[in-house]
Amino acid sequence: MGSEVALILQTANFAAEKHKSQRRKDVEETPYINHPIGVASILSQEAGITDIVVLQGALLHDTVEDTNTTFLEIEEKFGPEVRKIVEEVTDDKTLPKMERKHQQIEHAPHCSHGAKLVKLADKLYNLRDLNRCTPRGLASKENSSIWPQSNCIDPAILQETWHHSIYAFQ
């Protein structure tokens, strides 16, 4: 157990360092690190996920997409399994936003179980954030465009893991 706690703390510290200058788009400008920690917390506390690799993937899920972190760096520090999850959930920021969203939908059914869990918890966290407050510069009608992406992920995961929370947004 001690080594697992150390791994989670090492991963959280790495993510915090990478995201240290970033803020969420909410009116409070919440520190960005709250997001990956929140995603990992949903998996751990609400879904009962204890797989360290999945929890590490949750903590690191936005590092390559939103910072100067590379997949190689993730693999060197955390191993190939963590890299695989991070790679599966990372969007290609060189593509236009709508194309990225389309690729998420196309790609989701082919992701590993761990990546699906991370992606779903990420969407759930973002939906809860949208429910809490509308981000700066986002019209509320745009909020509904996020939900259809989550419908493409394995329905068994939805039913087993976040039944009450997810269906509140339908």
Write down the overall mean pLDDT.
84
Order of helices and strands: HHHHHHHHHHH
Distance between the termini: 38 Å
Percent of residues in β-strands: under 5%
Number of helices: 11
Major sheet details: none
Q: Structural class, judged by helices and strands?
A: mainly alpha
Shape: globular
Number of strands: 0
Radius of gyration: 15 Å
Unreliable segments (pLDDT under 50, ≥5 consecutive)? 146-153, 163-170
Looking at the chains present, what oligomeric state does this protein adopt?
A: single chain
Q: Kindly state the percentage of residues in helix.
A: 55-70%
GO molecular function: guanosine-3',5'-bis(diphosphate) 3'-diphosphatase activity; metal ion binding
InterPro entries: HD/PDEase_dom, HD_domain, MESH1
Enzyme class: hydrolase
Protein name: Guanosine-3',5'-bis(diphosphate) 3'-pyrophosphohydrolase MESH1
If you had to describe this structure to a student in words, what would you say it looks like?
This protein has helices at 2-18, 34-46, 52-60, 63-66, 71-78, 80-89, 97-107, 113-132, 140-143, 147-150, 155-167. The chain has 170 residues and is an all-alpha fold. The chain is 66% helix and 0% strand. 29% of the residues are buried. It is globular.
